[in-house]
Amino acid sequence: MIYLDNSATTRPFDAVIALMAEMQQNNFGNPSSLHRAGILAERAMIQARNQVLSCLGGQDGNFVFTAGGTEANNLAILGTMLSRIRRTPRIITSEIEHPSVMEVVLYLKSLGADCQFVRVDQNGQVDKEHFAELLTENTALVSVMSVNNETGATQDIATLCRMAKQKNPDVLFHTDAVQALGKIPLNVKETGVDLLSVSSHKINGPKGAGGLYIRRGVHVKPVLFGGGQENGLRSGTQNTPAICGFGLASELTMASMAEKTAEMARLRTKLSEGLSKIPGCQVVSVENPAPHIVCATFPGLKSETLLHTLEMREIYVSSGSACSSNKPQLSPTLLAMGKSRKEIEGAIRFSLGHNTTEADIEAALSAAREESELLLGISR
After folding, report:
1. How many other CB atoms are there within 10 angstroms of residue 344's CB atom?
2. Backbone phi, then psi, for 174, in 5-degree steps?
3. Residue 261: partners with Cβ closer than 8 Å, 6 or more residues away
4. Residue 212: beta bridge partners?
5. Given CA atoms 188, 216, 144, 211 in this order, what sign does their dihedral have?
6. How many CA atoms lie within 13 Å of 221's alpha carbon, on the beta-carbon side?
7. List of residues 6+ apart from 81 with CB closer than 8 A
8. Which helix (H) or strand (E) holds 303?
9. Going residue by residue through the chain (380 aa), what tens digit of pLDDT does each one get?
């Protein structure tokens, strides 16, 4: 199997699987319990929290464990904005956000918030001039993703955050860093963000765990109510095996990040250059690409058709964001970048991981060329 869908999910590290099995068998206490079993589980969870915070450079902030990136994004936006709806706050986000941000912003818009959507250019970069035009003294929240999940385009979060706070020092800045963790440097102090969302299963950790970094002094209200776990911000018994797996995955990822991302970047370049030589294939150009994502389009083909022909050769790719690829709609990200309907309908995402090899890339390129030429009726 050649797995090139790592932006959808990753295989957990062996050490993470072992730790989670150990937690399930021998450290299964409820971390809210006052007895020894509960205290041991709580200690393990504290260690995991510190492991994740260390990856973000945010040891002086708070980190709330959630069930994943979607919940973290919802908590960041709803938890800061619902109480301000009557004041008609301005919320700014980009046109290329993940649905777990975009749908929440649209929901707040339906409640009366002033929601504005900043344009991106043909390379997937936020239009800074348009962003500056949208900023007002009433802007309460800005949410811009660090790395786009479909194209790999990275944003200059530090500059955008600085621009927002120069206009209104009280504005909150949130970034969805789900695709950024372990792929590009993340430091909440250097970027100045107030809120940052991450997910475990994108960095060889388990599904069912993620979280939200909250800068000290930022007030967030819960969107789930119950027993008051996670300092009252996320009620419900914590999934300690997944949380501890997340913590270990964070530590292991950061320990080898420089070496692994350099190799992924090299292989990404090889993949991108190889795809650009396939007749009928167009690589989606992005500025400052993350090291693990290549989006290519085969106009005239349906992406699902090519995806399944590659699957028959045990090569696994994606037709877009895994969270929305089962919905028959054109990609808002590629639309915002000015791509045509034919280009969007033929878009395939290749996403690399820590275990991707040069042989994997060569095999994927060979298969993509052969299958696309066959489907398009191109003779050599």
Report:
1. 21
2. -115, 140
3. 182, 183, 184, 291, 292
4. 64, 197
5. positive
6. 8
7. 89, 91, 108, 113, 140, 141
8. helix 303-311
9. 999 999 999 999 999 999 999 999 999 999 988 999 999 999 999 999 999 999 998 778 899 999 999 999 999 999 999 988 888 899 999 999 999 999 999 999 999 999 999 999 999 999 999 999 999 999 999 999 999 999 999 999 999 999 999 999 999 999 999 999 999 999 999 999 999 999 999 999 999 999 999 999 999 999 999 999 989 899 899 999 999 999 999 999 999 999 999 999 999 999 999 999 999 999 999 988 999 999 999 999 999 999 999 999 999 999 864 455 555 578 999 999 999 999 999 999 999 999 999 999 999 999 999 999 888 777 55
- Is 323 part of the annotated catalytic residue set? yes
**Structural contact between residues 77 and 108, judged by C-beta atoms closer than 8 angstroms:** yes
Which 8-state DSSP code applies to residue 223? S
**How would you class 328 by CB atoms within 10 Å of its CB: exposed for 0-12, middle for 13-18, buried for 19 or more?**
exposed
Q: Which listed residue (244, 281, 295, 323) is catalytic?
A: 323
Closest alpha carbon to 365 in 262, 285, 277, 263:
277
d(CA 238, CA 227) in angstroms, rounded, equals: 11
Q: How far apart are the first and last CA of the chain?
A: 27
Q: Are 324 and 99 in contact (CB under 8 A)?
A: yes
Pairing between β-strand 2-3 and β-strand 315-316 as defined by DSSP bridges: parallel
Provide the token pair at 336. 């915002």
> Among candidates 103, 1, 2, 5, which has minimal Cα distance to 303?
5
Strands 62-66 and 90-94: unpaired
139 vs 89: CA distance, rounded Å: 6
Q: Rounded distance, CA 321 to CA 70, Å?
A: 13
CA dist., res. 266 & res. 228, Å (int) = 46
Q: What is the pTM of this model?
A: 0.94
- Give the number of other Cβ atoms within 10 Å of residue 88's Cβ: 12
Length of the chain: 380
Torsion of CA 63, 68, 69, 72, to 10 degrees: -50
User: What gap in Å lies between CA 23 and CA 29, rounded to an integer?
Assistant: 9
